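On clarity, I found the account of how folds are encoded harder to follow than it need be. Since the whole study asks how a given chain folds, the encoding of that fold should be made plain. For illustration, here is how one protein appears when written out as sequence plus structure tokens:

:::
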Amino acid sequence: MNQEKMYCGIDVSAETLDICYQTQNSGKQNLKVKNNKQGFAQILKYCPENFHFVMEATGVYHLQLVFFLNENTQAFSVVNALQIKRYIQMHLERNKSDKKDAKRICEYGIERHPAVYEMPDSAYFECRSLNNTIEDLTKEITKISNQIHSLKKVPYDASIVIKSYQSIIKKLQLEKSKIEKELLVKLQNWQPELLKQVQSVKGIGKRASSELIIYTKAFKGMENYRQLISYAGLSPVEYSSGTSIKGRTKICKQGGKQLRHILYMGALNAMKTNVACKALYERLVANGKNKKVAIIAVCNKLLKQVFGCVKNGTLYQDNYIKNLC
């Protein structure tokens, strides 16, 4: 077993890392270290070579370890947290602890052999952080705007609270505007051509183009438009079994919730400005399709157009097919 790849499962929390790694005698050993460089060095001490490290994506708490392992040329995988959760549930675990989770993550690596993580550019992490902040600020502005709307309906004087909320919204909108400008600058420095190609599609604005580039890591690993549609959680799913269960076909929603929301708003604009999208929407509605179903079809059409531009490295053209004739 000396030359055979061994796995190390890592359960990440804010302050500590729970480790479960294979030993030479086919057993497993547990370890708990701090979530810092000293703790990372301790992991490599016990797993010196020929180890494949497996962890789940946990917001930002796993990123220090990711950068450390990448700098030390270690093989590692960052697995979707839902996959790990379902794997643990499959074993009918009654109890949950960080130690047990680390063990199951190690077993997941041994059984499933997850692909080695492809480290994105550092610019990607910077852009993602800015993009997430814009999303958080947008949610906060919406939340406070709803509170103002409700306070205007109360039968007592709430003018002081309303003015306070309005002042907060102005500050949040100012900060959001600053971050949006900073994000655009970083995207132009990181992926200038890609940004032009995505934005050239009518119906895809600045927010949609930023979200698409960041969420897909600059369309890394995208081989066809179906993958892009699935990545956004817009692919259709069927739920049926025998003669008793016949559910309606709907979108899977296992993907970027924020991306779907932005694409939906972009589709509403594309129905007016994008010739192909407008024709698709009108044809589906004329054939009796529900309007929301038709809008989802427009979202998918936009993703097809974006993928076509990115794959061919060209800007979008309304009359592209006519030029071929």
Remarks:
- The first strand starts at residue 6 and ends at 12.
